[in-house]
From TrEMBL:
Subunit structure: Homodimer.
UniProt keyword annotations, A-Z: 4Fe-4S, Iron, Iron-sulfur, Lyase, Magnesium, Metal-binding, Queuosine biosynthesis, S-adenosyl-L-methionine
Gene Ontology molecular function terms on file: 4 iron, 4 sulfur cluster binding; carbon-nitrogen lyase activity; magnesium ion binding; S-adenosyl-L-methionine binding
Annotated source species: Flavobacterium silvaticum
Protein name: 7-carboxy-7-deazaguanine synthase
UniProt lineage: Bacteria, Pseudomonadati, Bacteroidota, Flavobacteriia, Flavobacteriales
């Protein structure tokens, strides 16, 4: 990457774009609603069960102008979800400014491991044990989405729920490869702890992106 491009990436005016697509939100609070997804490359959180490991290396994804990204997004509905990778590795202020200017509602899905930047209408926080969220991420969280891989993850979920605000929506979601084993555990847990709700990766059941 040449110096000029690197400077633009560092400023958030270009981002390593892995993919972008219009689909149905499959997880969490907004399940079943249409949204345009912007997947940004780069992540060092290192979840062993991550289903988009190809997003980890930002160098594999072309630096793309935020104007180009925003223009494409504005052609598809009114809701944009910025995800990754870990989008907060980059300065999100320029991109979200453009998206807001285009009249979009802007959501993020993040581990919260980096200081938040940007303007967000919805902040979905999904903490990971390998790199815990910064304090500001807990404060901003509209939604807490905890991935359950085994029974020990329920304790971690409760630890994280204790750090978010009273109005944050709480979700437990089975890790896809373990769904048959852990979904019954989640159902029982939610029935006994009704502050939580079940989230499923419905887009995978529907066979859509």
């Amino acid at each position: 990457m040449d110096t000029v491009t690197q400077d633009l990436v560092n400023q958030g005016k270009m981002l390593p774009l892995m993919e972008e697509f219009y689909t149905i939100q499959g997880e969490g609070f907004h399940t079943g609603t249409a949204a345009y997804f912007i997947r940004v490359g780069g992540c060092d959180v290192g979840c062993h069960w991550c289903d988009v490991k190809e997003s980890w290396n930002a160098d594999l994804h072309p630096p793309t102008s935020i104007n180009t990204i925003s223009e494409a997004a504005s052609k598809h509905g009114k809701t944009v979800v910025v995800t990754g990778g870990e989008p907060l590795m980059w300065d999100m202020e320029p991109l979200t400014t453009e998206l807001v200017r285009a009249g979009m509602k802007v959501h993020i899905e993040t581990s919260g491991a980096y200081e938040p930047s940007g303007h967000w209408d919805w902040f979905c926080l999904s903490p990971k044990k390998t790199k815990l969220p910064v304090d500001k991420a807990y404060e901003l969280a509209d939604e807490l989405k905890m991935i359950i891989y085994n029974k020990h993850d329920f304790e971690f979920a409760e630890q994280q729920a204790a750090k978010v605000g009273a109005k944050t929506h709480l979700f437990l979601q089975p890790e896809w490869s373990k769904r048959e084993q852990v979904t019954p555990l989640i159902v029982d847990y939610v029935m006994n702890n009704p502050k939580w709700r079940v989230s499923l990766q419905t887009h995978k059941y529907l066979n859509i992106p």
